[in-house]
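Before the break, one more example. Copy the sequence into your notebook; we will annotate it together after we see the structure.
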Amino acid sequence: MERDYPLEKVRNIGIIAHIDAGKTTTTERVLFYTGVSHKIGEVHDGDTTTDWMEQERERGITITSAAVTCFWTPTYVPAEALLARHSLGVAGAKAGAQHPLKHRFNIIDTPGHIDFTVEVKRSLRVLDGAVVVFDGVAGVEPQSETNWRYADEAKVPRVCFINKLDRTGASFEHSYATILDRLSKKAVRMQIPIGLEEKHEGVVDLLRMKAYYFEGEMGNLVIEKEIPENLKAEAEKYHGELIEKIVETDEVMMTEYLEGMIPSMEILKKTLRKAVIANEIFPVFAGSALKNKGVQLVLDAVVDYLPAPTDIPPIPGINPDTEEPMLRHASDAEPFAALAFKVATDPFVGQIIFFRVYSGSLTAGSYVYNPRTRNKERIGRILRMHANDREEVKQVFAGEIAAAVGLKDTITSDTICDENNPIELNRIVFPEPVISLRIEPKTKADQEKMGMALNRLAQEDPTFKVSSDQETGETIIAGMGELHLEIIVDRMKREFTVEANVGKPQVAYRETITGESEAEGKYIKQSGGRGNYGHVKIKVKPMEMLTKEELEDLPKNTKRSPGFEFINSIKGGVIPQEYIAPCEKGFKEGLDRGVLAGFKIVNVSVDLWDGSYHEVDSNEMAFKIAASMAIQDACRRANPVVLEPMMKVEVVTPDKFMGDVTGNLSSKRGLIEGMEDRGMNKVIKAIVPLSEMFGYMTGLRSMTEGRASFTMEFFRYDIVPNNVAETIIAARK
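Here is what the structure looks like once it is written out:
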């Protein structure tokens, strides 16, 4: 089987934007104009193709990225295209696959909400280009900045589309200025709108210096006209700017241009394409997807300026056996290598693995090698996805995005490759979860199903984590935000029929001692026949932090484990050797139970220095109980305190919100450690108790118009202030 489309005529693109900028509306027009759908779905009607999940349609937001395949022949009809059409004849024109200008688009519509940022991150990793959509009123919004940063990290070429120019308050110039100000100085106008708000009629192409109007019921007729008189001067000015920006990227052209030579349209387009692929220029287009204006010209730009798989550098990886660096070129002739970027559960076919083929080809029924597991797996079926619909194909080639059925041990970020030519591609790095909740099943029947459901959902979403609190026995789920976890719980209910109660997680507090004390533990019990006798004398003190060298020089009678030191000072056999280990075990059990609020006691040094035994009645159990009683008594007298986990928090916020953010952190018992500049933002570093950080993301967003973000990681345990400790102890009684 041969590929049906040449590699250079394939475009793998993502549509990315802030929530409500109009990504899904734009995607719906793309599907309509490319002939994939015969009706334009609207978000407000809940009938869009790419937002197919119930939760998406109910909330009017995109939650999961959806992949679609479509075909596009550019709208422009210069002489060569007309000739090509005529030479093909009617039959040739109808056999669209043979049309010399027809291109295949693999499009991924991504979410805009920060909680589902994982979808954007993994999509950008496997895409070659992106269309970034902006709201014509708001311009650049917070998630636009985050997505742009992800695209920068992935070095993905972009074209910009300023959408919603039909809205009241729309301003192309304002939105363009926010792109220059907040994202990149390399953005350049390719178009200016003809009219704004309700008078928005079309666009002026600044490269061709023509006006374009979109007529017909759905704007499917693109009509070329002369530029309106009132826009000619403005168009001339920006045309000059555009030409200058293009020639600046090529030294030879720049020299010729300064000498008065104006490059031809063909050369300008070629140079612009090269600059866009190198991320030296970001072309900006205008229109209104809802009013069916401008979308076709953006599709033309995807063909003209965004890269084919052959235009991007070879994909780097390592040999999993030798760890030597390797490269794979986008070619069918190279050994097979693909990256699994998404796991989805389909109710009909089970687990589906989405993958991007970087080199070689893959046939259904063949075996692939996974370098992470070091195992082979068989590809059962290969599917070309169209949102939640699918088309079965026998073979996929380099540059394609497809889905596989039958891979059981493959997870997000895994490489699948040819066994004889193994390569491990760079893994996708995902952000850590920032919010967690306690979850428990409502019934016994739910209990059995909940574990399986959570496991499935965690496989699908690398930013969703499931853990068990060893101290409370609770199941803790963690994710990127409250909406993220709300959707997870909702999916559990709908897809897996699991009902669950959700609450707040408990903070894992600790206890420790601040003083020294002595205690005696006696366990003497007669129950007829052989009795029980255990007797220990101990000293306790706070455990000293030692250097690596000091740890190596510890006396032989001293044992250390994290948070606990045991010194065996027994001499003369007052406690026989076989009872020493049970004593140590008893001390640990006594510490696990706590003395103030039932939290584990840490950083305690115990010195077993005396005791006694009975030749008949002494046994391991008796000494274990005696040791446990002694340590509890000793700790009560050694000034015990409650400890709480402190987090290292880093908040990135625009300058104007800095005072609000620092004040808020201080009110949370936070210690501000320092501030620094990062681009146009301020970075605030602080140490804050974990108990104060639950729900912080929501508060931070409302405080900063949604423009700030934060990360946190565990730092250390600190003593809780008395007033807080009293509250904690009272809550545990």
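Residues 46-53, 55-63, 79-98 have pLDDT under 50 and may be disordered. The radius of gyration is 33 Å. Try to locate both features in your own notes.
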